[in-house]
Every structure is written in structure tokens, then in C-alpha cells.
Design a protein that fits this description.
It comes from Ruegeria atlantica. InterPro entries: FlgD/Vpr_Ig-like. The chain has 2 domains: 56 residues, no CATH class; 29 residues, no CATH class. It starts with a strand and ends in an 11-residue tail after the last strand. The chain contains no helices and 7 strands.
Length: 96
């Protein structure tokens, strides 16, 4: 899994098991130091040896703090401060 900051720079790479459905990124860079608060994206890269076979955006989740209608579109503000369109949400879980 490749972690990129909001500028698209790679800040970490995390090995992902092919048998585990969940992987947790610790919020640390490749040097083991905590990264600044902000928006990060995760992509999954599949390889056959050194050959890159595919790249896909990893599914992530976050707690919704607010929903607003902006320009006739429902926008969700996550607890991290990130704002996403409700149309990009693929699942909802019960709160704890």
C-alpha cells in the first residue's frame, strides 16, 4: 500500500497481506516519525516480481461529523476535517 500526502508525494509504503481484509496505517512516514495532520491517500499496488500489474485506490473509512447540501450535492465532513461527496460513499456502519 502506498501512502501519499495531499501533494501526491509518497510518504510511506506498507506491506499488505493477501489474506487479511484490513490494514491499518499508523500515520507515520517511512522514517517511523509521525506525519503532520492532513489528508493522505492510500493506493494498492499489485506486483508480479518487479512488474507492476495494477494500481487501485484503497477503500478507507472515517466518522462523519456533519452533512451539508452544497450546490445541490450532499457533502460530508469527516472527523478528520476532510470533505467528501456523499456519492463517493460505498458503505455505512453503525456508530459505537
Amino acid at each position: 500500500m502506498v501512502i501519499r500526502d495531499s501533494d501526491g508525494a509518497v510518504v510511506d509504503r506498507v506491506a499488505v497481506s493477501t489474506t487479511d481484509n484490513n490494514t491499518v496505517w499508523t500515520g507515520q512516514g517511512s522514517d517511523g516519525q509521525p506525519l503532520a495532520a492532513g489528508s493522505y491517500s492510500a493506493t494498492l499496488e499489485s506486483y508480479d516480481g518487479d512488474e507492476l500489474l495494477s494500481t487501485q485506490l484503497a477503500e478507507t473509512y472515517g466518522e462523519v461529523g456533519e452533512a451539508q447540501v452544497t450546490d445541490n450535492q450532499v457533502m460530508l465532513t469527516l472527523e478528520s476535517g476532510q470533505v467528501v461527496a456523499a456519492t463517493t460513499v460505498t458503505g455505512v456502519r453503525a456508530g459505537t
